[in-house]
């Protein structure tokens, strides 16, 4: 009752949304991912840096190369998901800042001149965008299965380059039979929120 | 048309949502933040680690201490926002894993035994939860103004401890007069998404 968002949308995006472990055969189209991108691109990032980069693994050959780098427990679901995406952070995002953040043209060098600062900021802000991506896949009626159980150096070498760090692999599709595991416990409000 | 979420909800959460720079006097209640937490707690994190910790800055004295650590450009809006939250990552989140992730009791030591691994994972996953928090503040009809322009070491020393790293400060409230700046440019789909 303290929320403006209607209950159906709350369920779709948050309350009923779950990490799917099986999928139907229904393909995920380019148009769906474009519609999702049109929403996530507006989500806020520091200095509008927008460091998320998305690799859609569409060919069977690329899928096979990816599955080899996954933890054993994650291989079957990624092998059968209609679409798989590798989400990465662009550690050289500052090159785009003169265009993305014209209100402070010096940001590229003053705020992000040093690589370790950029890497931390890219990780944090690409993770924000990864969360927008997972939420907006749900807005498209799709189930998302984000995973961090993979050989990160292996995936980086196989699909990315030294300037792009993998964040997660996401299985995408309509949920299939027995898609859901029992919900895990969550921390209580008082364990997470304090007031000063 | 490729989305299941209705257009009003799309606008509320993503399309029309903006970072507010001014706020009305209307208070943000404990009940509103509790309702937001009831949604964000379900958002997925790796191994259900849930590392986000939230400090609500409610007292005028604490507000003053916080404002001192902010970049000049951020001081006025944080001084006048109805509520301000410091979001942080708990780098010792693994202590809660036996309870949060009972399906893999060894995760605490096998996956997260080393502090540098934990710090990166806490940063990434707390950032995911920070994005759920910003999105769900919007679901509550509130405007959120996330900021990373502050002295992170100073805020950590003043409000947190060595095990909690600040991610961002968020101004929260109903948007006031002239709350919005012109929207900044975004990257195009083809600059962000590639297929293999």
Describe the structure.
The structure is a homodimer of 196-residue chains. Chain A has one domain (25-173): NADH Oxidase, CATH 3.40.109.10. The first copy, chain A, has 196 residues and is an alpha+beta fold. The first copy, chain A, is built from 9 helices and 5 strands. In chain A, 45% of the residues are buried. At the A-B interface, helix 1, helix 2, strand 1, helix 7 and strand 5 of A face helix 1, helix 2, strand 1, helix 7 and strand 5 of B.
The quaternary structure here is homodimer
Shape descriptor of chain A reads: globular
CATH class of chain A: Alpha Beta
Structural class of chain A: alpha+beta
CATH architecture of chain A, by name, is 3-Layer(aba) Sandwich
Q: Mean pLDDT score of chain A, rounded? A: 94
Q: Give the distance, in angstroms, between the N- and C-terminal Cα atoms of chain A.
A: 26 Å
Low-confidence stretches of chain A: none
Largest interface: A-B, 84 and 84 residues
- The name of the CATH superfamily of chain A reads NADH Oxidase
* Residues in helix, % of chain A: 40-55%
Instruction: For the largest sheet of chain A, list the strands in their spatial order.
Output: 1-2-4-3
Q: Which fold name is given in CATH as the topology of chain A?
A: NADH Oxidase
State Rg of chain A: 18 Å
How many domains of chain A? The number is: 1
Q: Using DSSP, what is the number of strands of chain A? A: 5
The main β sheet of chain A shows up as:
4 strands, antiparallel
Q: Provide the β-strand percentage band of chain A.
A: 15-25%
